[in-house]
Write a structure and sequence with these properties.
It is a single chain. This protein has 11 helices and 13 strands. The protein has 2 domains: about 1-40 and about 70-100 and about 315-360, no CATH class; about 100-310, Rossmann fold (3-Layer(aba) Sandwich), CATH 3.40.50. Helix 4 packs antiparallel against helix 11 (about 320-360), helix 5 packs parallel to helix 10 and helix 8 runs parallel beside helix 9. With about 375 residues, the chain is α/β, with parallel strands linked by helices. The protein has helices spanning about 1-10, 25-35, 50-55, 70-90, 135-145, 170-180, 195-210, 235-245, 270-280, 290-300, 320-360, and strands at about 15, 90-95, 100-105, 105-115, 125, 130, 150-160, 160-170, 220-225, 250-255, 285, 310, 315.
Length: about 375
């Protein structure tokens, strides 16, 4: 029935939320046939010569009954209003086109070291060729990004200084394009790890302030990839990790390459582990591409997707329009009845005045 009405009205879909109310449609007929008519006693005029009057007119007296019969428009108004009220109680609803509601999961900030040592070709690609550490990171991060559906990814690059390559975005394609545009030493030769962590915290705070939705307790995760120790940051990495903990930002750190990092001091894994521990994250060591991929897989397990996709159809109820139509019908009927009554009253008063004038003339 709903689909038929929808096709007639040109709607995408139509339904009654409470169709059982249509069961009471025959109720007025039941009342009409089973319930006796309403009766009331009224004062009557006593006629002393009633029997002589009856004999004179030749009629048979019967019990005095006055039956009020509604006019055709009154009946039509009652029937239509009853149909509208019952239909409104059934709550007719128009269904819109299916909509997909996506709930984003985490904000994941990927922090990548672009210091000079990232050019060292001590990693192997998928095809077995020797590639730089940065190229290996790009390969693994490309696979990692594809597993983060629903997460917003950001990208921070650091060397002599840290800068935001892209703020948080759910568009993985754009994020990967910006990642692939990076090159070794484009941010300088040194490793300002502490400044990079501090910048990541700042980006998280700015994202929370600019967010227009009402999402609460959104997961905040930073994944730091570096192959060297901090060399001259304004903020010590351990101190930055403590601030991250206070701001509910978890930091996972991946130490990449040989601990005897080319061109820099030996990689201090104790510091790397402290950074992760202070912020509630984990530390990983990747000496080759497989270990690097495994590290990101482990992070994926520690930070599973929170993405949810639900399909719904927007609804618009029409019951209030039907009730408004009923009210309008009764107001119109009341206005017409009042107008008719006043017109008859004026007409009868005019006739009475005319009769009085005629009577006076005869006298």
């Amino acid at each position: 029935m709903g689909d038929l009405l929808a096709s007639w009205l040109g709607m995408s879909s139509f339904e009654f939320e409470h169709p059982l109310w249509f069961i009471i449609l025959p109720l007025p007929l039941v009342v009409y046939f089973l319930v006796p008519a309403y009766r009331t006693k009224q004062m009557a005029i006593k006629v002393p010569f009633f029997s002589q009057l009856v004999d004179a007119i030749g009629e048979t007296p019967s019990e005095g009954v006055s039956q009020l019969t509604p006019s055709w428009w009154q009946r039509a108004t009652l029937i239509i209003s009853w149909l509208l009220v019952v239909t409104a109680m059934a709550k007719p609803t128009v269904l819109g086109e299916p909509q997909v509601r996506e709930s984003l999961g985490r904000d994941v900030m990927v922090v990548v070291d672009l210091s000079g040592s990232m050019a060292e070709q001590d990693f192997t690609s998928k095809t077995g060729e020797k590639i730089s550490r940065l190229d290996a990171a790009k390969e693994v991060l490309s696979d990692f990004a594809k597993t983060r559906k629903g997460d917003r990814l950001g990208l921070i690059l650091f060397g002599d200084a840290a800068f935001v390559q892209t703020p948080f975005t759910p568009d993985q394609k754009v994020w990967l394009e910006l990642l692939n545009q990076t090159d070794v030493a484009m941010a300088g030769q040194s490793t300002h790890l502490g400044d990079a962590i501090g910048l990541a915290i700042k980006v998280f705070e700015q994202s929370e302030k600019s967010r227009t939705d009402v999402e609460e307790n959104k997961e905040k995760v930073a994944i730091v990839l570096t192959d060297g120790n901090d060399t001259g940051s304004f903020v010590e990495p351990i101190d930055a990790a403590k601030v991250a903990k206070a701001k509910d930002v978890r930091i996972h750190v991946i130490a990449m390459g040989d601990p005897q990092t080319v061109g820099e001091t030996a990689l201090d894994m104790n510091t790397i582990k402290r950074i992760a521990k202070e912020s509630g994250g984990e530390a990983f060591e990747a000496l080759n591409r497989d270990e690097l991929a495994k590290a990101y897989d482990e992070i994926g397990k520690l930070e599973p997707q929170l993405y949810e996709s639900t399909t719904y159809r927007p609804k618009q109820s029409l019951h209030h329009y039907l009730m408004a139509l009923v009210v309008a019908m009764y107001l119109t009927a009341f206005s017409l009845a009042t107008f008719k009554r006043r017109r008859l009253s004026v007409s009868s008063e005019g006739s009475a005045q005319a009769d009085n004038v005629v009577g006076e003339r005869h006298v």
